[in-house]
Amino acid sequence: MAGVDVVLQVLIWGLYAGCIYILLATGLNLIFGVMKVVNFAHGELLMLGAYITFTFYALSGWNPYVLLGASVPLLIIVGIIIERLCFRPILGTGKLNEIFISIGLIYIVQNAAAIVWTDEWRIIHSPYERITISVFGVNMPLDYLIIIITTALILIGLHLFLRRTRIGKAMRATSQNRNGAMLMGINVERMDMLSFGIGAGFAGAAGTLWVVSGQVFNPYMGSIPAIKAFAIVILGGLGSIPGAIIGGLVYGIAENFAIFTLGGAWKDAISFIILILVLIVRPTGLFGESAE
Amino acid sequence: MTGENTRLLEVSNLSVFYSGLQVLWDVSLSVNSGEIVTILGANGAGKTTLVHSIFGLVRDRKGKVLFRNADISSIPAYKVVKHGLSLVPERRELFPKMTVIENLEIGGFPRQERVVGYDEIFTLFPVLEERKRQLAGTLSGGEQQMLAIARALISRPSLLVLDEPSLGLSPLLVSTVLDTVATLNKSGLSILLVEQNVQHALEISQRGYILENGRIIRGGSSDDLLHDDQVRAAYLGI
Predict the structure, then answer these.
(1) pLDDT for the residue numbered A271
(2) Residue among A184, A188, A291 whose CB faces B107 most closely
(3) What is the rounded CA–CA span in Å between residue B128 and residue B143?
(4) Where in chain B is CATH 3.40.50.300?
(5) A4-281 — its CATH code?
(6) Of A177, A187, A291, the CB nearest to B93
(7) pLDDT digits (tens, 9 = 90+) for A195-227
(8) Shortest Cα distance from A192 to chain B (angstroms)?
(9) Which of A39, A45, B38, B217 has the fewest CB atoms within 10 Å distance of its CB?
(10) CATH value of B1-84+158-238 in 3.40.50.720, 3.40.50.10490, 3.40.50.300, 3.40.630.30
């Protein structure tokens, strides 16, 4: 009986850890799907989301969950600025340009953050920190439940946006066939901007949830989560949003099982072991080449 | 040609370059309203390049493209289609992971207020109604071509440009597609048709141009072209 409890416990931890990865990987996939650009600086957008939450929390003392209302819109704006200034001018000039621009952005954003916020480790505390609730007989922190529900709502929102709205459909059309979309009167550059904005907004949401769950952060915190998000994107299939969701959950859960069974040192390694195994069996990732 | 029709499309002295290399030389042609005009030419003659530069998909070009007297030579593709031109591209350029209905919806993007009703489309292409919930990528080649044409019609264009609509289709389907083109023309739509199927294309069109190595080498009424010995030798193998 104790065994089942432990498995459930680890599953819930994994589900929570998966949420951050899912938000990052979904954002990456959205940007890749529309622009065919890999934003290596995605982890830095997560970090900015964390610091924006931290700063507003320090200034206002509001419930940090409410600060999603600050981190998401601000990161959307940051994303749009990055797209306009950095990626639009070089789009289509060669992959190497895109790679170096986004790698360069990593250091620019990290250093700027270190100047503004210093490079000390920070932490804030959720008002629900001490509350645990019982789900299916397993105790879990209330924060984890809120994070899981918030992520689910964000993903449902994205799904409805992409499936039901005119702009969402235009984004999907652009990701599936850029020339075809142009010929249908879709301003594909506006779709680039929008996809980068939404992708960055998702990273902002992940930043807030990271901070709220009581994890520490500094200006360099984005690298490891971003590398894992890339691995998830590859695991799930480039451009596939369902792939990003499944991949994120697999990673979150696998990491927590690794910590529990093999020890904490294996936490980061297990992700890449899974990635290598999947790629050996299915070189296109779990969900084929590109879905949406 | 019925007398002095209004000029719909006028391309004058169009030259196009691909990374500095010239591929079209001083191409001039026109389409009047109500006409079907055919552009004939072998593979690599520059037909698709010509179509792409009319639609603003090729940026490196000289010359003028006027549509209903409005200069559309230097505007991006998504704005070109808002003037009332619609393209059925050579490779169809459908959205493979969207349903037939969603593809049609996107077709209405340029001018939402003047979208043709689906009923009208489904009368023309009944097979699309049967398949309307199916993903475009799962349709057969012929069905995809129907969908590409239907999608181009949704925004009720005044000029429909078809780039080799019969490419890759069985002979039976080629006839169906070209007959559909003729039917659309009878209902008042002007058409610029790029084809390799010379005989059939000239039969349904009023005028034609012959493009060879990036230059227009002949233009005239379809009848004249069909009976021209040079054309017959080069393109009809007679």
Answers:
(1) 84
(2) A184
(3) 7
(4) 1-84+158-238
(5) 1.10.3470
(6) A177
(7) 999 999 999 999 999 999 989 999 999 999 999
(8) 14
(9) B217
(10) 3.40.50.300
